[in-house]
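G., the chain you wanted modeled:
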Amino acid sequence: MPTLGLGVYMNEECAEACKVAIQNGYRMIDGARYYENEVQVGVGVGNSGVKREDIFITSKVFHADFTYDGTMAALKDSVANLGSCKRVLAYYDLYLTHSAIGGKDARLAAYRALLDGKASGMIKSVGVSNYSAKHIEEIREAGLEMPVVNQVELHPFCQQKPIVEYCTKNNIIVQAYSPLVRGAFDNPVIQELATKYSKDPAQILVRWSLQRGFVPLPKSSQPERIISNSQVFGWNIEPADMAKLDALDRGKEGAITWNPVDVD
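Predicted structure as tokens:
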């Protein structure tokens, strides 16, 4: 799995954004059925000039489809959407349950459908999003294969420490959505470090995520921002400055999205 991906939520220029990202070194695209742009992801990948097998593509099933049959139908439709661009091999490298909303029985039914989708070759790996430890433990207790990924909101203001600790102990990769805090860059610590390292605030935030061991998924539709958000390698934030960013954590109060990790 690549260490950095392009998120495509609310991206009206999704196909072009994916093409630009891939042509400038990105090798992972993070989508979802809820975003309604799976077809555009396929078009962007197909137009990129890079082989499909060299690109890691993710999608997610929304909780409205959390039955076994509903999830299987959604998965088949996702594969068809991606494959509508005839230049793109129609499979997903990773497919997630988008949240834990819906209750235990519903999310386990959806997860079982994804595992069967993996067995049939439609997807290569299965994961979850917005899950707390208790939701993942349900999977273990059901005797099912554990998820390879848990994708949650993650940035210095919302560090999800209990979830991260659990995932680390259980060898589950943590992907970070909204790593750029939706552009809220006015914090003085972030501004100070951007000046010190001669980087923009977004690069500081992505670099923080990488150094914490997460897989950040910054999103943008602007080519120049897509490119600059990936210029986060070959330099490091010093430990003392990482500590300053770590100290910004406000727990759940720091979330800037729906962050439904505490649902029953």
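DSSP finds ten helices and eight strands in the chain.

Shout if anything looks off.
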